[in-house]
Queue: 2 jobs
Job 1
Amino acid sequence: MKDIIISPSILSADFANLERDIKAVEKYGADWLHIDVMDGHFVPNITIGVPVVKSIKAVTTLPLDVHLMIENPEKYIESFANAGADIITFHYEAAKDKIKDVINLIKSYKVKAGISIKPKTLPEEIIKYIDLADMILVMTVEPGFGGQKFMSACAEKIPVIKEYAPEDLIIQVDGGINAETARVCTEYGANSLVAGNYIYKSADIKSAIESLR
Ligand code: DX5
Ligand code: ZN
């Protein structure tokens, strides 16, 4: 595994040219592909669902990093796993009393399991689940939309998580990541970066991806 896993968020891609935009990041060295699933309940926005994930799987070899911003994630794990997700991340806030069950369910499909926390959630709340998860996703904006401003206070959660993390835990950040904020996060100990606007709205996707490493 590379030191820093770059996971471009297709939320900022052109949905009418999704295959073209996926191939572009694949060509220029993306490690994963980040897919933002929103249900209009857990977050105000509605985006991508299972059929789109299935279609994406058919056109890329990149591992699919599926970020579920939905209520009752346990209802949809099987569908997303069968659609080809390689990593499924759900929100702690949407599954507080059933974290272990959701993780076990994800792992039962041989898919990596991630837990995500929103900006107002303290890192201490998830420490007890840290040994069960493959990845912790620290949101650095309020989930729901691309193109928001990086919240630096959220990045300060990374060292707290790192302190309790097993050696191979992936710590991912998502929201407002660019070359400068990526540096802040990797210095704190993040090793996976999601970026939507910074990559897809750039005139030079290759340089944008390279500048995050
Ligand atoms: C926001 C999503 C992000 C989003 C990031 O809720 O989880 O993955 O696409 O977009 P940027 O990088 O533009 O902030
Ligand atoms: Zn995301």
Note: Residues 5-211 form a domain with the TIM Barrel fold (CATH 3.20.20.70).
Job 2
Amino acid sequence: MKKEPKQLSVSAIQNGTVIDHIPAKHLFKVIQILGLDKIDQQITFGTNLDSKKLGKKAIIKISEKFFADDDINRIALVAPDAKLNIIRDYEVVEKKVVEVPDTITGIARCMNPKCITNFEHVMTRFKVVSKKNVALKCHYCEKITDQENLQII
Ligand code: CTP
Ligand code: ZN
């Protein structure tokens, strides 16, 4: 039987960054966190692509853009399985995974309904007390928001 050639749903890029394995439901959150709506480089993306691991995944390709690790790690809460591929001259020259950072600003909501961040215009701030099963300690009220109660803003 003839084997289907591997087809790309989103065209290859010459130079830049490919962020693969983003949960489809968080694609626009990733775009927002990385500020991709404000950059001039060419961006292509695909979403609701089939993934064995994630069910539906999204992929973003950003030409001529290379991120600092600290910037890219901000997506870890919404795309913990994201894989970064650094492309130079059409070749994948490096692969990276995202890592949950030590502190998180914004992105998540504090689960304490009485927390100041939930009724005043104050951006949330957390210390990450556990990375594997994410647990975030609020800078303001010191309550822990765990994975189960994690809500993305
Ligand atoms: N890619 C791209 N442009 C290139 C080379 C690769 O957009 N010039 C993309 C591919 O479409 C793929 C990702 O970069 O989504 C990684 O490429 P590659 O390592 O060749 O693919 P896989 O082996 O499928 O990667 P993995 O299994 O590690 O996700
Ligand atoms: Zn709080």
Note: The chain has a mean pLDDT of 93.
